[in-house]
Amino acid sequence: MSDNELGLFLRLRREAVTPTEVGLPAGPRRRTPGLRRAELATLAGVSVEYVTRLEQGRDRRPSAQVLSALADALRLTANERVHLHRLAKGADAGFSCMGGAGPNRVVRPTVRALLDRLEPAPAVGVNRLSEILACTDGYRRMAEPIGLLDGGRPNLARFVFTDPRARTAYPDWDRVADEQVAALKQGPGQADAHVGALMDELTVSCGAEFAGRLETLPGLPRVSGVMRVVHPEVEELRLAYETLELPADDDQRLVVHLPADDATAAALDRLTGRRPGALRAV
């Protein structure tokens, strides 16, 4: 897998910004998607040679001022800026924001109580390895029949990439797979030994479908969106999800699913045995 996450992120963001977004003429004969390196260099006030070195991984120690200038030029969001600075820190082999700690598998009582209050919504708590640590009964009724909770320590990424049932459960499998890889790469990513070991495992077992995404996806999963799940009892569900990051000491996140349409709301009511209208479409 690539060890140049900083360069990959800069290149992908550069290619995602159109010239018109930054006040440059598009021109009829552009070969490069998004901005050219020279254009980014001009906007950020650095040399094109320096941008090239960063993207190619030949320079991995940009100053905070340079990172801020690049972030401004690339029109990065606040979340993307944080991620950019994490990648610059992570380029130092002696630095890990997790301090070498293993994945946290202990869910605090107040977090469990919060999950209880989210019933009957399908909600789940996961750690940075995408291991499922706790969930609502609503999530269990949705996930168990598709096989997601099988095994002693269910893992979202491992299910998506190694269980053939995932292709049936997720009609938009490619998009779901992208999100799982992006989530693993977020934060310390492969600089963390435990995440790196899982990445190695999935690279060996899944080949290009996993490894190719490692090489091309930045570590920024969508924090919200709509996903489709095919359930054997109620057919297709359209679920709007929100990701809630817990404090850094927890190293965990909650993902809450709500019905995205009235048909899904009714289907979830049937699954949970609740009165109609227990969950409303958003």
Task: Describe what you observe in this structure.
The protein has 282 residues and is an alpha+beta fold. Helix content is 45%, strand content 13%. The protein is built from 13 helices and 5 strands. A hairpin with a 3-residue loop joins strand 3 (224-231) and strand 4 (235-245). Helix 1 (5-16) packs across helix 3 (48-56) and helix 8 crosses helix 10 (173-185). The protein is globular, with a radius of gyration of 21 Å. The model has no long low-confidence stretch (mean pLDDT 89).
Beta-strand percentage range: 5-15%
Strand order of the largest sheet: 2-1-5-4-3
What is the helix content?
40-55%
Uncertain regions: pLDDT < 50 for 5+ in a row? none
The structure class reads alpha+beta
Order of helices and strands: HHHHHHEEHHHHHHEEEH
The N- to C-terminal Cα distance equals: 39 Å
The major sheet is characterized as: 5 strands, antiparallel
Task: Count helical runs.
Answer: 13
Shape: globular
Mean pLDDT rating: 89
C-alpha Rg (nearest Å): 21 Å
- Report the count of strand segments: 5
Compact overview of the structure:
The chain is an alpha+beta fold and 282 residues long.
What is the fold's blueprint, element by element?
Layout: H1 5-16, H2 37-44, H3 48-56, H4 64-73, H5 78-90, H6 109-117, E1 123-127, E2 132-135, H7 137-143, H8 156-162, H9 165-169, H10 173-185, H11 193-206, H12 208-216, E3 224-231, E4 235-245, E5 252-259, H13 262-272
Antiparallel strand pairs: 1-2, 1-5, 3-4, 4-5
